[in-house]
Amino acid sequence: MTTATIDVGEFLESKPGVQGGRPVLRGTRITMQSVVAAHVFNKVPLEEIAEDNPHVPLGALYAVVAYYYAHQAEMDSGEKAEEREAIEMAHRLGAEII
Fold first, then answer.
1. Where are the alpha helices (DSSP H) in the chain?
2. What are the residue ranges spanned by the domains of the chain?
3. In sequence order, what DSSP letters do the residues of 10-28 get, joined into one string?
4. d(Cα 79, Cα 54) in Å, to the nearest integer?
5. Could you say which architecture CATH assigns to the domain 9-70?
6. The pTM is what?
7. pLDDT, tens digit, 9 for 90 and up, residues 60-96
8. Number of other residues whose CB lies within 10 A of the CB of residue 3
9. What distance in Å separates the CA atoms of residue 28 and residue 31, rounded to the nearest whole number?
10. Which of 10, 46, 55, 72 is the S-S candidate for 61 at Cβ 3.0 to 4.6 Å?
């Protein structure tokens, strides 16, 4: 059996001012989190995401999802921390979260 190593960094970039510095698919504003949310949580096939975004290679989408599964606990906890921070900021600004 042959194994291959894929550098997910080949498909992602992070720039200040683009999607809050979150990792995006290289050359796009599509966040890694949006791909994971669409595919993993909303069950949108990666092929459909690729059809809707013809400039994004299907392999990049598979690499992002594979990276998510390999680092799921870390990524989920980071997302929860961001959510808590956003709620705390909203409360400090006087907003009510329903």
1. 32-36, 46-52, 58-70, 72-92
2. 9-70
3. GTEE--TTSGGG--EETTS
4. 28
5. Orthogonal Bundle (1.10)
6. 0.70
7. 999 999 988 888 888 776 666 666 666 676 777 777 6
8. 4
9. 8
10. 46
